């Protein structure tokens, strides 16, 4: 007799091992890893190896739990500093951006597909949100380092826009099921929105504080901290969802509160969360791949690709541009944010809702959503790195340790074990004295582990291991780390010269012939750039001032600008600018220029009219005046 539970364990574990092993291939060829997991599900499904799975409610349940775990981890790894740096742009994209995307896709589907408005908007809502798992993987695990503000905006947006998409999809499904005779008063819609999003936000902040307080005060076995955190997170997700709130928003905010306020057991929690999130991502993508029936894609592939291309090339860019107008992102930054709008498992998961509600177009919507996700993963997921380089948003790597491990020592002392590889240009290799607080705990030389007294001063090729508090790592970098060699790309990015942030802005303006709108007085270069960029300048921020370009190179421990790069051939004017995505400053400047040209034109037109009037008057007087000969003739007569 066939043992179904054991068969289920056999199949699921085999798929899990296969997904993990094939990830090695994805890293080598640069394929989006989550696309690979989705492909494995399709490969072993009904149209592949023949494994049949068509239980939509079970798939939605597994996907919802996996998404809750992923969102909790997304918030857990988001620092308050990152969230505050991109709070308002991200919230605008996560709310207004999702609404605009839904409306734009809905209009196109209604006009081209002939569906009702509700059905068209439902499809738009299904594909309206970016996928947190895909975005976090590509930005954090994919090895791409981009400008801090852009990165923070994408991370926070991807983690916070799912609740809005879930709300819109569920609301539209309920409206379609209720029938056309049931209206949708705006007041009821807003009330539902405030109830779900507002209640979810309050519950997430309060619940996250409760989780952090619990793990900080309880004295548990180390292995129990991940268990209680996971249990409390899923408990809040279920309670808030049952109470009519947004459980997904709750777990995201709870994760952020826990990751920032928690102290007890945090290194273990981070490692546990990392592994559990990978498991959730693999499981969710595999189960959604199994649910799909690729043989049915042929009936709908044209519509799916049209929706995908419109979403990627029109709806998402237009929505992002309108949302980011007040926040003064550059054209390149806006273009990149619009391109990193990857659709993933969330869109497929939301497409299950119409199927569960027995909406006639439910299966077609699921297939279209699947095609949109595949297209997005292949086009956007494979091109994020080259697009970032083309737009000049890739930041050269910082100097830093080879490896960094967070440790929790008795007495709540949080330390990190950092390892440095000593190379020729390391300061300690050239004879720099090592302070007492920075002395290594272990030195590995030619494969031998040695005590510092036995090894003597570090040599080129050594690996040094140091236990230190996190606040000292920047200081250790300056002693043990290798300065990144300035290749041609770095010179283009950080300029040809490095200036001290304490240098006088007036002296720099005078030296390089820069005309400033007002006298800088005694303002330093660091203070001038901080004022220009706002209160939170980040590495890579840049500004063009006439013939030069200033770029933030190094940020100190107190977030003050320490060194500034200077380029005598600014990148921005010489590089071909994008003919779109003007920010608010450029629009204002363009309007001022147009107004100035219009005034000049008006003045020229008035001058021309006045000249024409004078000329006409002079000609008329000449015609009316009697000729001298005729006057003499009349006198003689």
Automatic annotation (TrEMBL):
Name of one Pfam family that matches: Na_H_Exchanger
Keywords carried by this UniProt record: Antiport, Cell membrane, Ion transport, Membrane, Transmembrane, Transmembrane helix, Transport
Segments of skewed composition (Low complexity): 609-619
Membrane-spanning parts: 6-26, 33-52, 58-76, 88-113, 119-139, 197-215, 227-254, 275-294, 300-324, 336-359, 365-384
Keyword Protease (UniProt): no
Gene3D superfamilies associated with the record: 1.20.1530.20, 3.30.465.10
Ranges where the record places region Disordered: 609-637
A GO cellular-component term linked to this record: plasma membrane
Cell compartments where the protein resides: Cell membrane
An individual GO BP term: proton transmembrane transport
Keyword Membrane among record annotations: yes
PANTHER family, sorted: K(+)_H(+) ANTIPORTER NHAP2, NA(+)/H(+) ANTIPORTER 1
Protein's UniProt name: Potassium/proton antiporter
């Amino acid at each position: 007799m066939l043992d179904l539970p054991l068969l289920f364990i056999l199949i699921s574990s085999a798929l899990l091992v296969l997904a993990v092993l094939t990830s090695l291939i994805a890293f080598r060829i640069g394929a989006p890893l989550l696309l690979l997991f989705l492909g494995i599900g399709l490969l072993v499904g009904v149209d592949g190896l023949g494994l049949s799975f068509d239980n939509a409610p079970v798939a939605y349940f597994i996907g919802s739990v996996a998404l809750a775990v992923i969102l909790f981890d997304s918030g857990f790894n988001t620092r308050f500093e990152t969230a505050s740096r991109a709070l308002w742009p991200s919230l605008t994209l996560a709310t207004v951006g999702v609404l605009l995307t839904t409306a734009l896709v809905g209009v196109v589907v209604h006009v081209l597909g002939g569906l009702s408005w509700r059905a068209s908007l439902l499809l738009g809502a299904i594909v309206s949100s970016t996928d947190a798992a895909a975005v976090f993987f590509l930005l954090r695990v994919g090895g791409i380092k981009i400008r801090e503000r852009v990165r923070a905006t994408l991370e926070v947006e991807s983690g916070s826009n799912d609740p809005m998409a879930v709300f819109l999809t569920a609301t539209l499904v309920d409206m379609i099921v209720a029938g056309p005779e049931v209206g949708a008063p705006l007041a009821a819609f807003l009330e539902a929105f405030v109830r779900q999003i507002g209640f979810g936000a309050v519950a997430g902040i309060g619940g996250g504080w409760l989780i952090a307080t619990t793990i900080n005060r309880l004295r548990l076995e180390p292995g129990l901290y991940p268990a209680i955190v996971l249990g409390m997170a899923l408990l809040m997700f279920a309670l808030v969802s049952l109470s009519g709130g947004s459980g997904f928003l709750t777990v995201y905010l709870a994760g952020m509160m826990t990751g920032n306020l928690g102290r007890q057991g945090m290194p273990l929690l981070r490692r546990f969360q990392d592994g559990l999130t990978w498991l959730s991502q693999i499981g969710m993508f595999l189960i959604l791949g199994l649910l799909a029936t690729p043989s049915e894609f042929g009936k709908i592939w044209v519509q799916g690709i049209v929706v995908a291309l419109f979403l990627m090339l029109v709806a998402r860019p237009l929505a992002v541009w309108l949302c980011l107008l007040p926040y003064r992102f550059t054209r390149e930054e806006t273009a990149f944010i619009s391109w990193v709008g990857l659709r993933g498992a969330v869109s497929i998961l939301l497409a299950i809702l119409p199927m569960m509600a027995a909406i006639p177009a439910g299966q077609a919507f699921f297939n279209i959503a699947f095609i949109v996700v595949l297209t997005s993963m292949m086009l956007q997921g494979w091109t994020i790195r080259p697009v970032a380089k083309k737009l000049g948003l890739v930041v050269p790597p910082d100097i830093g340790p080879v490896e960094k491990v967070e440790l929790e020592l008795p007495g709540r002392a949080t330390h990190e074990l950092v390892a440095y590889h000593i190379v020729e240009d390391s300061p300690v290799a050239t004879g720099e004295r090592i302070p007492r607080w920075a002395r290594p705990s272990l030195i590995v030389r030619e494969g031998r582990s040695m005590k510092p007294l036995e090894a003597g001063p570090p040599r080129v090729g050594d690996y040094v291991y140091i236990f230190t508090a996190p606040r000292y790592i920047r200081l250790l970098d300056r002693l043990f780390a290798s300065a990144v060699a300035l290749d041609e790309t770095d010179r283009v990015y950080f300029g040809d010269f490095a200036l001290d942030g304490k240098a006088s802005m007036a002296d720099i303006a005078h030296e390089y012939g820069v005309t400033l709108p007002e006298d800088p007085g005694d303002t330093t270069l660091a203070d001038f750039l901080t004022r220009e960029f706002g209160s939170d300048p980040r590495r890579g921020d840049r500004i063009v001032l006439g013939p030069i370009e200033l770029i933030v190179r190094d940020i100190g421990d107190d977030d003050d600008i320490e060194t500034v790069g200077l380029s005598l051939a600014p990148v921005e004017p010489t590089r071909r600018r994008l003919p779109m995505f003007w920010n608010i400053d450029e629009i204002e400047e363009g309007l001022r220029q147009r107004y100035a040209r219009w005034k000049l034109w008006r003045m020229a037109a008035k001058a021309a009219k006045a000249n024409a009037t004078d000329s006409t008057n002079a000609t008329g007087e000449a015609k009316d005046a009697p000729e001298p000969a005729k006057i003499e003739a009349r006198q003689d007569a």
